[in-house]
Amino acid sequence: MIGFSHSLKNWLYALAATAAGFILSRVVLYGLTSLAAFSSADDSTEINFTDIYDKVADRGAVRTLSEDVVIVSVDGCDRSRIAAAIDAVSFMEPSAVGLDLFFIYPSADDEALIQAIGGCKNMVLPITDGETPLKSYFYPLSGCSYGCVNMNASSSNDIVRDYIPVFDVGPDKVPCMAAALAEKISGRRMPAGQTPERIWFPAIDFDVIEAEELVDEDGLPNLEVEGRIKDKAVLIGVVNDGSDMHRTPVAEEMPGIMIHAHILDTILHDRGINEVSEALNLVIAILCCLLFLRLHLFFKDWLDDVGEMIMRIVQFVLIYVFLVLGVNLYVRHHCLVDFSMTLLMLGFSLTALSIIKGTVYLFQMLKDKKKTA
To answer: Taking the domains of the chain in order of start, what are their residue ranges?
Structure first.
């Protein structure tokens, strides 16, 4: 009976310390988010532990050059040179072309530009979402499709991790640029939805072709470049525009056109991430913490200080194991399990247990003093 009573007492201690560890972990996460909001110039920058997975995966020894997506840089080009670049790309028979540029005001060189855009097969033009979408002044153009180019972030300070497949553009539903290009390539409509999907950033590079490389000295398409474009999806836009830089999990500054390329690569190669629900993440954290604390109390009763030393070592080992497990599930299986609460609760668990046991001891001591008084 005494053994059962002591075991029950230890389970209650473990439960109480797990609850305290949960509260401490939530307070720390809230504090980190508040600090990020205070540090941010405009909007809050969300703290996301899973960005670590992207960073670790991106630093892997093996990098992949996308075989399906190419970027054409038109930095510093006027509209006539952009028109020449579009003509050259069209001649080289890409599978689809996405123009990540807006032309808000008319210009003297627009006739050639509009003809080049209209004559390019499988062209996707940019548009923004909202009731009054931003678009080029000469829209609509027959034969062209439209793709929304908004990033899923509220400001340049936020980190772009996800993309939205479909946007509300006025009364219509318009796919994002990458989804519209994927539809051109596959010939079938992509699954529609407005739920954010995770972008796969790590260890993927893209061939960037300068506009000057597309034409030879005579102004004709440069056939030496044709193999880099034929049957591939081509994104045309600026790569070094400071106003179009965004933060991502793998880079402090990434041009918007590069993010579109990553989204398209994610769609074409089905690199979508299977995210474990927040509820299951919490269940994992609570169960791991509870079992760890109960095991700690068992070893403490059995081996006293040696048992506590053993569990301290186990604590650090478990933190390392969950870090490695999270990265491997993400990199190898594209499964996103957020172990942030698990790691925090394991880190705070023994502190919480010490506080609870110390508080119980003080109350018991005060109670004993009242009895003897």
So the answer is: 2-36+275-372, 62-272
